[in-house]
Amino acid sequence: MIYVVGIGPGERKMMTGEALEAIQNADVIVGYITYIRLIEELIRDKEVVKTGMRKEIDRCQEAVNIAKTGKTVAVISSGDAGIYGMAGLILEILDKEKEPIGVEIVAGVTASIGAAVRLGAPLMHDFCHISLSDLLTPWEVIEKRVKLAAEADFVVCFYNPRSKGRADHLKHALEIMMTYKSPETPIGIVKDVGRKEERKILTTMDEINYEDVNMTTMVIVGNKETYISGDRMITPRGYTL
C-alpha cells in the first residue's frame, strides 16, 4: 500500500487529520530531505528514505519497490501531493509497471491556499496556478500560459517564482502580464507560509522588490477588481453591497 501524502506548507496544525493518520499507519516514510525535516517529530519510530533535489523519479521508484515487499509506504509531498507533488509520478510508475499496488492520495493544503488565507481573500474569483520552473516545462510554454492567463484576467498564483538559476523568470512573467494589467495591480507575497520564517508582503506590479522572492515564496497577482485594504488583499466575488 502506498499513501501519497500532502503535508501542507509546514506547520503541523495545517496538516489534515487524514494526512496525520496516513503517516501514522505507514511502515516507511519516503520524501525529499527538506520535507522530511518538517515532520521529524511525527516519524521518529519510522523507517525513513530521503533524497535530495531532482531525485523525484528515484524517490518514487524506491517507494514502489518497498511497497512490493508488503510494507505500507507514505510518500511525502509539501502542500498537496496532486499539485506539483508526487501523486502523478507514483501513478505513472505503477501504470507503466502494471503493479497491483493499492494507492491512496491524501489531500493537503497547497501553498496558494495557505498564502491566500494569510493575505485575506485574494482567490474569491477565478484563479489559476502557474509554475515558473522551466526544469520540466519549456519556458516558451510557460510564457504562453502567463500571457493567456493575464489576457483572461485570472488571479494568478505563481509557484517556484524565483531562484538563483532563474533570477529573472518572475520579472519576465510580470512584464508579459503588464500588457493586460495595470501597474497598480495588487500582488501578495508570502514567504515560507506555515513555517517559523513566514513573512507577508503586499505590493503592486510596479513596486515589487524581486529580492523579496525566492523558491519558498508564493506570489499571487490580482485581477482588475482586486484591491488592498489595510493589510488585506481582496478580490471581490461580485456581490452587490
UniProtKB/TrEMBL annotation:
<dbReference type="InterPro" id="IPR014777">
    <property type="entry name" value="4pyrrole_Mease_sub1"/>
</dbReference>
<dbReference type="GO" id="GO:0032259">
    <property type="term" value="P:methylation"/>
</dbReference>
<protein>
    <submittedName>
        <fullName>Precorrin-3B C(17)-methyltransferase</fullName>
        <ecNumber>2.1.1.131</ecNumber>
    </submittedName>
</protein>
<dbReference type="GO" id="GO:0009236">
    <property type="term" value="P:cobalamin biosynthetic process"/>
</dbReference>
<dbReference type="Pfam" id="PF00590">
    <property type="entry name" value="TP_methylase"/>
</dbReference>
<comment type="pathway">
    <text>Cofactor biosynthesis; adenosylcobalamin biosynthesis.</text>
</comment>
<dbReference type="InterPro" id="IPR000878">
    <property type="entry name" value="4pyrrol_Mease"/>
</dbReference>
<keyword id="KW-0808">Transferase</keyword>
<dbReference type="InterPro" id="IPR051810">
    <property type="entry name" value="Precorrin_MeTrfase"/>
</dbReference>
<keyword id="KW-0169">Cobalamin biosynthesis</keyword>
<dbReference type="InterPro" id="IPR014776">
    <property type="entry name" value="4pyrrole_Mease_sub2"/>
</dbReference>
<dbReference type="InterPro" id="IPR035996">
    <property type="entry name" value="4pyrrol_Methylase_sf"/>
</dbReference>
<keyword id="KW-0949">S-adenosyl-L-methionine</keyword>
<keyword id="KW-0489">Methyltransferase</keyword>
<dbReference type="GO" id="GO:0030789">
    <property type="term" value="F:precorrin-3B C17-methyltransferase activity"/>
</dbReference>
<dbReference type="InterPro" id="IPR006363">
    <property type="entry name" value="Cbl_synth_CobJ/CibH_dom"/>
</dbReference>
<feature type="domain" description="Tetrapyrrole methylase">
    <location>
        <begin position="1"/>
        <end position="208"/>
    </location>
</feature>
